[in-house]
Amino acid sequence: MSRENAPDVDGQATQEFVTRIGTRIRTLRKHRGWGVQQLADAAKLSRRMLTDIELGQANPSLATVDRVARALGTDFAALALPQNGAPGTEAEGTLVWEAADGSTALLLAATENPRAELWRWTLAPGGRYDAEPDRPGAQEIHHVLAGRLTLVLETGPRVVGPGQSATIPSDQQYAYLNEHTEPAFFMRVVSGA
Fold first, then answer.
1. Pairing state of beta strands 104-111 and 116-123?
2. What is the mean pLDDT of each run of 10 residues along the chain (193 residues)?
3. Is the separation of the CB atoms in 161 and 144 below 8 Å?
4. Under CATH, which architecture does the 12-80 domain have?
5. Which one of 66, 67, 127, 189 is least enclosed by Cβ atoms within 10 Å?
6. Helix 15-32 and helix 36-43: axis angle, to 10°?
């Protein structure tokens, strides 16, 4: 079973997010005049997985959504954030990922040129999020507001405490981990993804 189709015990994309991106992906694909197979090939996905994403019936990884966005000539934020003019969306952002333990990832805003995304994360005690590598050269900045965040990197773990910041290359396999008894609240800026 592929990662995209596997049940995610650590969390999953929210249904609102999955429905929104599915609709936008289908609209953009049709606007380009592409069939499902053509986009699936361009995004390096199975036809079945892409169909499930478009129908809002899949739990795609955030990296999978990013690959589909790039294949369509757009970016993750353009698929994920509410359309301009939706009331209250500027302050609220979009809940993209959540876990049963209360961990969440909220995409707050994004820029186009240069590409950057601003996220607010909550990671419950014992919570973990495994990320997939971004494009070569991509980076993330993390600023911990409260609690402690462990960045699990190929070079080893790095703990970031309250009021501290860290920058990491995100073109590697990495994870966020909260090994402590208090929730970790942190901001995340992604550039070049």
1. antiparallel
2. 33 77 89 92 93 88 84 83 53 82 91 87 95 89 96 95 95 94 95 81
3. yes
4. Orthogonal Bundle (1.10)
5. 189
6. 110
Q: Can you tell me the distance from the alpha carbon of 186 to that of 42, in angstroms, rounded to the nearest whole number?
A: 34
User: Could you give the CA distance from residue 20 to residue 169 in angstroms, rounded to a whole number?
Assistant: 29
Judged by DSSP in three states, 182 sits in: coil
Which tens digit of pLDDT belongs to each residue from 60-89? Answer: 877 788 889 889 988 788 787 776 544 444
pTM metric for this prediction: 0.71
What torsion, rounded to 10 degrees, do the Cα atoms 20, 26, 32, 36 define?
A: 140
- CA 24 vs. chain centroid, Å, equals 16
Q: Rounded to whole angstroms, how far apart are CA atoms 133 and 168?
A: 12
CA distances from 100 to 12, 14, 82 (A): 9, 11, 24
| CATH classification for the domain delimited by 91-191, as one of 3.30.420.40, 2.60.120.10, 3.40.50.150, 2.30.30.30 | 2.60.120.10
